[in-house]
Amino acid sequence: MADTRTLHGFHAVTARLRQRPESVRAIYVDAGRHDARARELAARAAASDVAVHPVDAARLQSLTGHERHQGVVAIVDAAMPHVTLDDVLETAAEPPLLLILDGVTDPHNLGACLRSADAFGAHAVVVPKDRAVGLNATVAKAASGAADTVPLVAVTNLARSLRELKERGVWLLGAESGGESLFTADVAGPVGWVLGAEGAGLRRLTRDLCDRRIGIPLVGSVASLNVSVAAGICLYATRAARSRT
User: Fold this and answer.
1) Of 202, 148, 198, residue with least CA distance to 176
2) Regarding beta strands 72-77 and 24-30, do their DSSP bridges make them parallel or antiparallel, or are they unpaired?
3) Domain 4-77, CATH among 3.30.390.10, 3.30.1330.30, 3.40.50.300, 3.30.565.10
4) pLDDT at 81
5) What is the pLDDT of residues 74-116, one digit of tens each?
6) Residue range 57-63: average pLDDT?
7) Which backbone phi and psi does 4 adopt, to 5 degrees?
8) Strand partners, 197
9) Cβ distance 238 to 187 under 8 Å?
10) What is the pTM of this model?
11) Is the Cα torsion angle 128, 102, 137, 91 positive or negative in sign?
């Protein structure tokens, strides 16, 4: 159905039941699973009046198109609550902490970035509508539930949105080698961490709009980090800096 989509994996399905149970149409579970995790999910679904259907592996694979479902698939409303940057900035109870991704196209990377954003209290993840992956079942599974706790704000024009954030007092910090050392940089206050796409890094216009460029010092043999790893380090650095002020 066009108005629904699938979620798979225990973290993603449980998070949706916890955050938006009314949006879950049905849950399908591997009939061979009788472990504590499956029982806990069934109990949570029953409390929310959501039907759980025991099915075989072939049925689960037909719903997802692959076998990486952990034995659970949910049919949920496709529409997510619409959240804008204005909503995020106006409701934040502390200086905004944003993760801005310039063209991340790998769904596993986006999911992992959402997971880090949740872990370190980012108020939203901002992505361009074009040249970036959207929120799909693979992203939700990789996010381990964070796709339902951290707003994913897709903007039509990333450059314009960056300018608007600057006008509203948000410091844009571009994560890029060759800039200030993250070990000594001031990263407290209202911050938007800006990270580039896998391999390509920040586009020139995006880089030029950043107030500062900050690099993560690396002491090993690798030249760069995966975008989701870098995002987690940058967000942690801001949380650590805020705890000292």
Assistant:
1) 202
2) antiparallel
3) 3.30.1330.30
4) 67
5) 998 877 667 789 988 988 889 999 999 998 888 899 999 999 9
6) 90
7) -130, 165
8) 201
9) yes
10) 0.73
11) negative
Hunting for tokens 């959402």 — which residue is that?
A: 114
Phi (first) and psi of residue 52, to 5 degrees: -115, 125
For 85-243, the fitting CATH number among 3.40.1280.10, 3.30.565.10, 3.40.225.10, 1.20.1250.20 is 3.40.1280.10
Q: What are 108's two structure tokens?
A: 């596993």
Q: How many Cβ atoms are within 10 Å of 62's Cβ, its own excluded? A: 12
Residue 168: phi, psi to the nearest 5? -95, 15
For 144, the token pair is 């381990």
Rounded to an integer, the average pLDDT of 37-66 is 91
